[in-house]
Design a protein that fits this description.
Length: about 150
């Protein structure tokens, strides 16, 4: 058995499988393993006594779940109204160029994943970029390069 299989078994065995358990299980598996692998979806389906399609259908409905490994650092660029007006699209383009990936992708070395966000609620600080849990405000393309270097 692989380390991932062992961890998955440990996570799933801690749940009583009843109605309303699926989403908390998906959240815990993703938190512990980083994403929902095909193996995880199959095992969850088996334990919940539902089809893999049902598990995938629920997980794919929510933007919080990922089906591919995520980078060590998640870069989120706000494209809400205030950020958009103040240059959010240029910030997103600078991040894409700097990382060599597009929105929704992960770098080959698994250091970074890139996401666009509708709004962080930091409109007075726009445009905003978040790396991990750190908010970077009043972004410029030049600042993007400097910040990404901090995480290399």
């Amino acid at each position: 058995m692989s380390l991932m299989s062992d961890k998955l078994t440990e996570i799933l065995s801690s749940y009583k499988w009843e109605k309303g358990t699926l989403i908390p299980v998906l959240q815990k598996v993703q938190r512990e393993l980083g994403y929902l692998s095909e193996e995880a979806i199959s095992e969850i389906a088996k334990r919940a006594r539902i089809s893999k399609n049902e598990v995938f259908g629920v997980a794919s409905f929510y933007a919080q779940f990922y089906f591919t490994p995520r980078g060590k650092h998640t870069v989120k660029v706000c494209l809400g109204t205030s950020c958009h007006v103040r240059g959010g699209p240029r910030i997103l383009e600078a991040v894409e160029r700097g990382l060599g990936i597009e929105t929704g992708e992960t770098t080959e070395d698994c250091k970074f994943s890139l996401e666009r966000v509708a709004c962080f609620g930091c409109c007075a600080l726009s445009p905003v970029m978040v790396v991990g849990g750190t908010v970077y405000s009043r972004m410029t393309p030049k600042k993007v390069k400097e910040i990404l270097r901090l995480y290399q």
